[in-house]
Amino acid sequence: MKKLLILPLVAGLLFIIPAVAQINNNSGHHSSDSLELSAFMQLVSYISADTFDLKLAETEKNTVHHYGEEHSVYVPLARGASREPTENGSWDKSLPTIYHKEPTQGSPFLLFLYVPGLVVNDSYTVINKPDYLYNYDKMSGNLLLKRNNESPIAVNRWQVKQFCLKTDKGGLIFMRVPLINNNEFYQVIYKGSKFSSYKLYKNRFVNANQKTNGYTTDGKDYDEYEDIITYYLVDEKKGEYNIFELTRKSVKMIFGSASPAAEQFFKDHKYEDINEVFVANLADALNK
Hints:
Layout: E1 5-8, E2 13-16, H1 28-48, E3 65-66, E4 71-72, E5 102-105, E6 117-121, E7 126-127, E8 132-137, E9 142-147, E10 153-154, E11 160-166, E12 171-177, E13 181-190, E14 195-206, E15 211-212, E16 217-218, E17 222-235, E18 240-244, H2 248-256, H3 261-268, H4 276-287
Parallel strand pairs: 5-17
Antiparallel strand pairs: 1-2, 3-4, 6-7, 6-11, 8-9, 9-10, 11-12, 12-13, 13-14, 14-17, 15-16, 17-18
């Protein structure tokens, strides 16, 4: 029997439906599948346990720096606060200015804090070090490790099969998906025996590009770390995948071609927003 886990995250929900398939241990390939599933279930149990009090709501107090690269975290204003209006002049008002460059927005980090987690190595051994804290670098695609007050380091990605980041309520699970690209870590939106759905994070730095002719201005007056998100639907039986966007048209086109059950799901949920929760529930319907 499949079990639905609803795991609140920092933003949004993560649905994981573990694939409970019959596995022939006489086959090396199936044995590897069994180890992968066993490790995955340990990550699910870990992030499901409400045992941490991380105070992620206080992210404005975080002062983490991205050591070794020329990024820095944009620290948002405290909730309810607003920026002071920019005046059209220099600090001592002795020289006129045309625009003021605002602080960098966005971040190369997935989370504002380093958090507890588990790592599954290339032998499918689950590594649990209570004094280790983790984050994910969307720009480089690296899992970052921090201990005590030491500088963060990037974990050797070739020795990691899966990992999870534990938040105060729930968490996130990442894994390699060789069918798509074995060099990347994909966040699990839904994992099933027939169909699975994943999310890939990318991040790029965009310089401020504001221009003015003295009368009007155009463009942004701040540097920005811009997220690039890609969603995937994997047909586990056929060994195929498709890319989709979080729009009704895109989801209906990709999922509709996967199973007739999708058409009925859209009819039954025609007024719901198209988001990751919708995708997870739709993938669940296809796996039944």
